[in-house]
Structures are given as structure tokens and as C-alpha cells.
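Section 5.1 Outputs to date
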Amino acid sequence: MSVSDQAARDGGRLFIPALGGLYSSLDTFAFTLLRVICGAALVTHGYGKILDPFGAVGMVEGLGFYPGVFWSPLLSCTEFFGGILIAIGLLTRPAAVAATIVLLVTVYFHWIVLGQGYGGAEKSILWAAMMFFFVVKGAGRVSVDRLIGREF
């Protein structure tokens, strides 16, 4: 469905109807770009943790997650391997659920534990929202999930 068709269905119309074709042609690209960038950023963030999967034991226990020797490697795997899965679009929804949970914990950590409020948690809130988007929408057209014809 084109952007202009979608807008008409939703009761709105584009201010510049001629742009509807451009928006429609960029829809799949924009969706894929967002997923790949989010996944790659998660991989980058998790890279240091995967090199030392027990390095966050004290931090996770400080947040109340015991035993830290279980939760620290799980955090590492969620960020590193989950990011790879999201970037390529394989098992996207489960990986995005796990990432959303991790990011909501970081919201709590920055906002409450560190007392930084919204300013400290803002980045985690945005990341959690992006991950939740993929929980709801899946991987999109250009993905391994779509290629194999199966997704959660």
C-alpha cells in the first residue's frame, strides 16, 4: 500500500501528494536501514562485554540480578548476538524482546539508581522504543526471517 493510500485510509492526506510515490519507494529501505543500524549498534555496544562476559557481574548484582555469573554473560550475549540477529533480520522479534528488556533495565539504572532522571535515561528510552518497534513490526521485507518464510 502506498503512503498516499495509507494516509487516505487513515483519514489524512499528504500536504504534497506528489511525494507519496517517493515515500512509498523509500519505505522498505528506511525500515531495513533502521533495523541494520540498530542491530549493528547493539553489536558494537556488546562487543566489549562478549570479550569479558563476566565483567559485569558486580554491576548486575548491584541492580539486584543474582547470581551475577548467570546474568552478566546473558547480558553480553543479548547485546552481541542479539544485535547480530536483529541486523540480519533472523529471529528478530525474540532478539528485540530481549534487547528491549535489557534497555528498560538501563532506563531504571540511569533514572533511578544513578538518579540522573530523564536526561540520563533518554538514550536508553529511545533505544528501548526502537527495539519495541521491531518486537511489534518484525524484521520487514529485507530480512532472513522473510527469506525463510518464518517469523515469530
